[in-house]
Design a protein that fits this description.
By secondary structure, this protein is of the alpha+beta class. The protein has one domain (10-89). Helices cover 20% and strands 44% of the residues. It has 2 helices and 5 strands. Strands 1-2-3-4-5 form a 5-stranded antiparallel β-sheet. Strand 3 and strand 4 form a beta hairpin. Helix 1 (10-20) crosses helix 2. It is globular and about 30 Å long. The two termini are 17 Å apart.
Length: 91
């Protein structure tokens, strides 16, 4: 499992590991994710949430699982009318 089971969605962790060909913890560390930044916005849509960070902290998407919220995509940046481009995601 990638990091704490309380951090990443199970499909996200598996996809990151499969794409990188290395253990998930190493794959996440190798990604060019934005530096941590203060949260500037949260929008919840049922079992899904979008968390926006300050400056170039990007956006993260979360999903509700048994036991709480987990990250399903991180290092995401908007592209106008097109879907977000994410450094780490499940698909």
């Amino acid at each position: 499992m990638c990091g704490s089971e309380r951090e990443w969605g199970p499909d996200t962790a598996a996809a990151v590991e499969d794409a990188a060909g290395v253990p998930c913890d190493q794959a996440v560390g190798d990604e060019a994710l934005p530096a941590p930044a203060p949260v500037t916005g949260v929008a919840v849509f049922g079992q899904w949430a979008k968390v926006t960070m300050a400056a170039d902290g990007g956006t993260a998407f979360l999903a509700m699982f048994h036991g709480g919220w987990r990250v399903v995509a991180a290092g995401c940046h908007g592209r106008g009318d097109r879907p977000y481009d994410c450094e780490l995601c499940e698909g």
